[in-house]
Amino acid sequence: MALRNIVLENDPLLRKTSRPVDEITPRIIKLLDDMAETMYYDNRGIGLAAPQVGVLRRVFVIDVGDDHGLLEFINPEIIEADGEQEYQEGCLSVPGKTAKVCRPAKVKIKAQNRNGEEFELEADGLLAVCICHENDHLNGILFTDKAVDGKIYYAEEEE
Ligand code: NI
After folding, report:
1. Suppose 100 and one of 20, 106, 131, 148 were both cysteines; which one would form an S-S bond, judging by CB atoms 3.0 to 4.6 Å apart?
2. What is the enclosing helix (H) or strand (E) of 155?
3. Neighbours of 81 (CB within 10 A)
């Protein structure tokens, strides 16, 4: 496993649409492993999408610290969405900024795991927020695009 560099806000890569994974090769497995390591590094993140490490593939990883532990999604598709919730989001690619974003309260997502098996997952709360946030990355969308009232909050200087 290896840490990957995180692509930052103004990089045009973050605005591209990622391509589906047609075959789960050792490269994709390594990508998943590296993405998890990069997300966990320094306890910084609860989710990371492949474009954030410069790979335009429909892959993301999430660990919101609940019983699910590490979740890996390949070729994800949100197939149901219900209700609304607002959450103050941040992003490893947009350091120092947060914004309130309105997301579905509940989602159902379909994806493949690293063995190529299809699975479905129902999520609410923070996990639903995170799934929607990461899925947006695969379509070139950042949370700041969806800030409620266009309002961006700037974090205190970090040491
Ligand atoms: Ni993000």
Report:
1. 148
2. none
3. 16
Q: Give catalytic residues, as residue numbers.
A: 134
pTM, rounded to two decimals:
0.96
Q: Does residue 111 fall inside a structural domain? A: yes
Q: CA-based Rg of the chain, rounded to a whole angstrom?
A: 15
Ligand 1 center to 45 CA (angstroms):
9
Whether 88 is in a domain gets the answer yes
Indicate whether 147 belongs to any domain.
Answer: yes
Write the pLDDT tens digit of every residue in 48-88.
999 999 999 999 999 999 999 999 999 999 999 999 999 99
Distance in angstroms (rounded) separating the CA atoms of residues 62 and 40:
10
The boundaries of the domain holding residue 74 are: 12-154
What distance in angstroms lies between residue 90's CA and the mean position of ligand 1's atoms? Answer: 7
List the chain residues with pLDDT less than 70.
43, 157-159
Q: Is residue 20 part of a domain?
A: yes
Which positions ≥6 away from 42 have C-beta within 8 Å? none
- Could you give the number of structural domains in the chain? 1
